[in-house]
């Protein structure tokens, strides 16, 4: 159902469109000034433009061992659906609805009172997003990113492990948006990161990488979008 290459193309096109929008606005700050949550918004707009459904900060589908509060559930940055306006099944929500019905006079019809969803979690695409740059602006002063290695390798590794723990999220990837000085640097550094994850036995497959130019403001001239698919381990 899902093509990693098509998703990478869509994400890269969204980055390119956002760069052009900032240029048209004569913006002082570029895409590489945005924080990670703002990058989520850019990618969300790209997927919506491609006529996909998008859920932000959606709870993961695997039921926890105990009944959590809504705020305690781990959430995924973006969940993609094949079409807009579809609803996504959630085992925890369905269980709560069934238990609420069983506590009323409608207990015999509890199953019928559970709101049906359009899509199984296994048919959605679960996407965690990380953004970093070779050059950053601290207090609007351009400089090399001292946290570059941590943000490029260690932070995505944590999301890889999180996605791999979710057996119902069968189709999943970590999306890395990397701002770099040039395309060879971006591709080299992403390759180093993928090999590090493989060396650490993390359950990743071959990534899809797209590189698009951005207006240079602080030293970065390209944005690379790297989608790293995950193999569930449980």
Tell me what the structure shows:
With 234 residues, this protein is of the alpha+beta class. Helices cover 36% and strands 23% of the residues. It has helices at residues 4-24, 36-49, 91-102, 110-113, 148-164, 183-199, and strands spanning 53-59, 75-81, 125-133, 135-138, 141-144, 172-180, 208-213, 222-229. It has a six-stranded mixed β-sheet, sandwiched between helices. Helix 1 (4-24) crosses helix 2 (36-49). It starts with a helix and ends in a 5-residue tail after the last strand.
Summary, kept brief:
With 234 residues, the protein is an alpha+beta fold. The chain contains 6 helices and 8 strands; from the N terminus they run H-H-E-E-H-H-E-E-E-H-E-H-E-E. It has helices spanning 4-24, 36-49, 91-102, 110-113, 148-164, 183-199; strands at residues 53-59, 75-81, 125-133, 135-138, 141-144, 172-180, 208-213, 222-229.
* Structural class assignment: alpha+beta
Poorly predicted tracts of residues: none
Q: Could you give the distance between the termini?
A: 22 Å
Task: Characterize the main sheet.
Answer: 6 strands, mixed
Radius of gyration: 20 Å
How many strand elements? Answer: 8
- Give the % helix: 25-40%
Order of helices and strands: HHEEHHEEEHEHEE
Mean pLDDT: 89
Number of helices: 6
**Lateral arrangement of strands in the main beta sheet:** 1-2-3-6-8-7
Question: What would you call the shape?
Answer: globular
Q: How much of the sequence is in beta strands? A: 15-25%
